[in-house]
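Figure 3 (text version): structure tokens given as input.
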């Protein structure tokens, strides 16, 4: 038993002596330094990253780059992020990341050649687009939805286009906008065109330019059937009535006063449902027309106003047709009634729910009256001047 204790003590002593003399390998203090050279131009592949390592002069190590390279320095690089991992002593790791940037690309040069409409309201304008810089072929996206390089048979307006090139690195995208101006409107030569494409000839009477047929537009101003972003239901006119096929001819549509005013209040130069640049005639503007026509030679011979403006091919060119009105049904009797933009007020200046209109029938005078705003009457337009 005594001998066993002595042997155990000797073994323990040997283990203790061995553990004290074997030294573990110390973890070195490693420092990674990255020197970057950015690509020389947009899309170029001539960037580089040089790696310097200190602290591992006598220690084996391995290098792994995020792009798969295992060399200490890497080159032929595009713009981007590059990470390096240095592994030593089988398990110790040092990390470092470099970011290479590139110059902004030279924008595409867009050159627009515009041919304006030959007349006011015409849709025979065109845009020819030439593109330089970048990498061909180019792709085009116009605000009209067209993907063609050029636009033809268009009307006055604002046209924008997004052009992209075919740079394999990343397409260069450039936007451009061109404005096609509307030619000056010449009354009697030019016709008004509404959002629905209806055309309205015009006539000069005194200092006023009138449409010579009744309004029949279905949509409020701002409607564009070529704009997919617009909700048509928001532009349809509530309060527009048609008698049979009259909305397809010069008889035109009937509108309630509120529909014609399109939310505007009584007053002068109210656009209402008229296209831009036009308005619903006021009571005073109708009076101005009446007073001008009273003079012999103005709009025809004599002083009888209705005879000068009544019927197709009237002497003045106003051509008031007997379109009737819309009440509980369409009355197609021998009369033409037109809304004014002027509300009929009571003695205290308060609304009565009625508005003024002008009337032409078999009598030798152009009548004036007022009726409930829910009645459907014809509408003529005046050019803003």
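Below: residues designed for each position.
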């Amino acid at each position: 038993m005594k001998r066993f204790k002595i042997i155990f003590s000797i073994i323990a002593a040997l283990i203790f002596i061995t553990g004290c003399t074997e030294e573990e390998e110390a973890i070195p203090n490693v420092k990674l330094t990255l020197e970057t050279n950015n690509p020389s131009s947009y899309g170029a592949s001539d960037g580089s990253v040089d790696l310097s390592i200190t602290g591992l002069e006598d220690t084996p190590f391995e290098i792994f780059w995020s792009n798969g390279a295992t060399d200490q320095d890497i080159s032929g690089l595009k713009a981007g992020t590059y990470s390096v991992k240095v592994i030593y002593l089988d398990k110790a790791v040092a990390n470092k990341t470099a970011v290479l940037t590139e110059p902004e690309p030279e924008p595409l040069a867009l050159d627009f050649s515009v041919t304006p409409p030959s007349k006011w309201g015409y849709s025979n304008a065109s845009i020819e687009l030439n593109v330089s810089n970048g990498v061909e072929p180019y792709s085009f996206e116009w605000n009209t939805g067209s993907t063609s390089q050029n636009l033809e048979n268009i009307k006055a307006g604002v046209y924008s286009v997004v052009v992209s090139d075919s740079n394999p690195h990343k397409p260069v995208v450039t936007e451009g906008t061109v404005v096609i101006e509307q030619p000056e409107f010449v009354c009697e030569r030019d016709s008004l065109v509404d959002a629905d494409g209806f055309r309205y000839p015009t006539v000069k009477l005194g200092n006023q330019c009138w449409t010579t047929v009744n309004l029949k537009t279905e949509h409020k101003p701002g409607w564009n059937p070529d704009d997919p972003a617009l909700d048509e239901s928001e532009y349809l006119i509530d309060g527009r009535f048609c008698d049979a096929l009259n909305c397809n001819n010069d008889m035109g549509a009937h509108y309630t006063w509120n529909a014609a005013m399109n939310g505007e209040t009584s007053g002068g130069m109210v656009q209402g449902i008229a296209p831009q640049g036009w308005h619903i005639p006021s009571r005073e503007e109708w009076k101005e027309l009446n007073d001008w026509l009273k003079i012999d030679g103005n709009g025809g011979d004599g002083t009888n106003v209705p005879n000068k403006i009544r019927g197709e091919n009237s002497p003045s060119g106003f051509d008031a047709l007997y379109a009737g009105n819309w009440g509980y049904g369409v009355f197609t009797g021998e009369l033409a009634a037109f809304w004014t933009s002027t509300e009929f007020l009571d003695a205290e200046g308060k609304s009565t729910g009625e508005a003024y209109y002008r009337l032409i029938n078999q009598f030798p005078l152009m009548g004036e009256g007022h009726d409930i705003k829910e009645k459907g009457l014809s509408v003529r337009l005046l050019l803003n001047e």
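Residues 192-383 form one domain.
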